[in-house]
Amino acid sequence: MSYALYRRGGPGLRLVTIVGLVLFVVWSAAPVVWLILSSLLQQKALIARPPDLSPANLTLDNFVTVVASAAALGRGILNSLIVALFSTAVALALGAPAAYALARLSVPRANAIAFLVLATQMLPSIAIAIPLFLVISRIGLIDNVFSLGVVYLSFNLPIVIWILRGFFLGIPAGLEKAAAIDGAGVLRTFWHIVLPISIPPLGAAAVFAFVEAWNEFFFALILTRQSAQTVPLVIAAFAGQYQTVFGQMMAAALISVVPVIVLAVVFRDWIVRGFADGMMKG
Amino acid sequence: MTSVPPRLPPAIELRRVAKSFGTVQVCRDVDLAIETGEFVTLLGPSGCGKTTTLNMVAGLEDSTSGDILLAGRRVNELSPVERDVAMVFQNYALYPHMTVAENIGFTLRMRGMKRAEIAARVTAIAASLELSHVLERLPAQLSGGQQQRVAIGRALVREPRIFLFDEPFSNLDAALRVKMRAEVKQLHQRLGVTSLFVTHDQEEAMSISDRIAVMNRGRVEQFGTPEEIYARPATRYVASFIGNPQIELMPGTVEAADGRPAVRLGAQVLPLPGDGRFRPGQKVEIGIRPEHVRLGAGNLSASVRLVQPVGPLSHVVLDWDGGSLTATLPGFSRLQPGERVSAAISPDDMLVFDQETGLRL
Amino acid sequence: MASQATFEQRRRSAGLFLVAPAIVVLLAILGYPILESMMLALQRVQLNAGEIQRSFIGLGNFQRLLADETFRHAALNTLYFSVAEVVLVVVLGFGVALLLNHPLGRPGFFRILLVVPWAIAPVANAVLWKWILNANYGVLNGILQSLGLIDYYQVWLGSPFSALNFLLLVDVWKSVPFVALLLLAGLQRVPSILYRAAYMDGASRLQAFRHVTLPSMRGAVAIAVVLQTIWSLRVFDLVFVLTRGGPADATVLLNFLAYRVTFNFLDIGYGAAIANVIFVLTLLLAILYIRLVRPAEGAAR
């Protein structure tokens, strides 16, 4: 048996792999396919037993109705966009320098600090929700996208710090030394050398933070009322209100997930590498 | 070696410089004085403290104690920029996201030089290093030798007082390493900038340096010209680190044979130089370099174990009752394993070390 | 530069300067809530005519936990849910990672398929599955009936046991991809020279898997296990949308219980006590994580 064959496996393993891949594709894709199909089918086709998938029943009405009637969805998307962009931008601006300092500059107790930053993620949201609610209502910022964005820093900052710290740990020390010899101070080294070579992990951290903020439900449930409601709240409310109008429900859900799915698909390699590096180098 | 008017302070001077990380002492009391224009190499195995010493001169690491002076001025508290040193790094440490031109010009940009002037200087340096045609490329698109030259260009462009080299050739293949070695030496001859070079390759150190500081376990064991280091090693360690094939070291005892000093190695007695350095009963170690073993005549009887031709020379490993011995012969040796030969070693060629202290007697 | 400082000194001071803003912001957001939540856990909190009245009762809330049938039930649900989820997700994730590491699984299409469930919001996921599992019109019922596997449409979320397991299925579906990606990254880090050596040594493929792949994956698997444990303990949105804890509290997990006690029963002190129990539990697991990963890294070097 040649080495190539040894690595690839014989017909038996090939068959197992193919069957496995088919099962994997069905398992992963089926619910998503059904999400898309449902959003494109008329109500009568959906409530038929079994669902009637004939092409004659395909329609864009669900989208038209959802977009036209649910102003909340449009506002929700706008709010989610603001909250996610704001908390991602701030998390990167504060988190990247912190990650660099924790990884490469001799900050006393850097590892302990990094662990504490991670430990905040063990905290169930519910534990801090009440005190946060009390503080935020006292300063009158309940139902405000920016106060929600600030609260989202509580998980986005640690995410950014952990992903980037893992990457920064792997930067060759020679680059920083060369920059020092070339006359760049610490800040200029960070700006001119470290950041430009960290674009993939910065992208990974940004996508990650954006997705987390876009999808967050619990804090939004507690800290918003009406005007600052984000997409997940709108969808949850929609599902409660119109739970028998299945096509529209799926259309709304689909609209809400498309932006992050596109981001995730486009930047998939960055996300995987960024997160794997960040975690593995603990 | 360059001759220097005595009143000038050394370009680089280290006075009892020490460095420790916690309880680990990396450098102990390093004393060095390097004259202006000199090319000096710190030579030693990994972990001997040579790179740490270089980093302390560069200002990349703080010394724990001692003084570092550049041109007579104490610089311990100065940053690398303020010390005006340039450095070529192991693995080049080129900025991967910058073109060759940007890499070379970065240091000038950091100094706030005008764009046009940077461009002019970079162009000139690139021309002198045969890099003009690759100025717009990224480091990843260059060959190993080109990357090396960019690293040198980056150091040259600012016309520094001192060049530091941290094992710059360790990642090059053998042929390229020899070529780059020659280029650096010519560059030094042309510019005459004081240079401190770190390597673990003794041949590289010998071929490139005015003087070599051999380091071992954080100390400078000997500081001298390549010839001094090779022919008159101060310690057993220096003798065994320098020379290829390695020097043979054999323990023995000094005796008096016919009123002249000699050393007993196993059953053999070899005469020592009669200059009164030795006293009978002294425990010594004898070092014999391969090129000092003459075959065909003499009173040492040995048998051939191994013949290793390397082209211009052959290394012949011999067994005799005092141990083993390597001899270097010109050309391709016709000796066969098992063949009996006689060998001679002149007393003046023997290096004799004190067994306890390791110092040469 | 006017002030004289060495490279190392500058890096030290710059380090503090760069790390401080992030830490200050984190402390500002989390510091007071964490302390306050611990205080609340030690208090009886009552709402009287819109006024909050608090009285210190020491460990009273925690003593109440021990006797609370609902809490015990939720703890058991959580234990079953978390253990089953971790096992299923890591095993399935490892399987998927192996599939995608095989030459046949290399095409980028498979990886695209993998990030989609990860990116879908838990709420949208719950809404989607609520529709799939619908008792009257759900596609799952439709498919199973067409295949002749069931005679009548089933109320999947109607009985306690079935509801909890479907909750599990839905969360496993969403969680497998990320763990698979993590483990795939781990697989790709196994030096291929090791497989070459195993081949030269005459190891069968199974033996190579057993003696090369598995030991090299220890660290990655440990990370996956602990991260997934943390995530399993955080599940909330799914319960909130899919089952609201029902039927008969069968899908009340600790996190949801803390929410319900706090916001529905307005028993804020008791809710905080439950939340703190979850926190301590997760933190202990995190310390385990550090313990497990560190030696694995040491061995790898």
Q: Distance N terminus to C terminus of chain B?
A: 27 Å
**Average pLDDT metric of chain B:** 89
Q: How many E-type strands of chain B?
A: 19
Radius of gyration of chain A: 24 Å
CATH superfamily of the largest domain in chain A: MetI-like
What's the helix-strand series of chain A? HHHHHHHHHHHHHHH
Helix content of chain B: 10-25%
By CATH, the architecture of the largest domain in chain A is named Orthogonal Bundle
Low-pLDDT runs of chain B: none
Family (chain A): Belongs to the binding-protein-dependent transport system permease family.
Organism (chain A): Ancylobacter moscoviensis
Subcellular location (chain A): Cell membrane
Pfam families (chain A): BPD_transp_1 (PF00528)
Give an overview in words:
The complex is a heterotrimer of chains A (282), B (361) and C (301). By secondary structure, chain A is mainly α. Chain A has 15 helices and no strands. Chain A has two domains: 59 residues, no CATH class; 211 residues, MetI-like (MetI-like fold), CATH 1.10.3720. In chain A, α4 packs across α14, α5 packs parallel to α8 and α8 packs across α15. In chain B, the strands form four sheets. Chain B has a six-stranded mixed sheet with strand order 6-7-8-3-9-10, with helices on both faces. In chain B, a hairpin with a 2-residue loop joins β4 and β5. Chain C has two domains: 50 residues, no CATH class; 236 residues, MetI-like (MetI-like fold, Orthogonal Bundle). Chain A: InterPro entries: BP-dep_ABC_trans_perm, MetI-like, MetI-like_sf. Chain A: It comes from Ancylobacter moscoviensis.
Search tags:
heterotrimer, A: 282 residues, mainly alpha, MetI-like fold, 2 domains, 15 helices, 0% strand, C: 301 residues, two-stranded antiparallel ribbon, 2 strands, 74% helix, 4% strand, disordered C terminus, transport (chain A), membrane (chain A), BP-dep_ABC_trans_perm (chain A), MetI-like_sf (chain A)
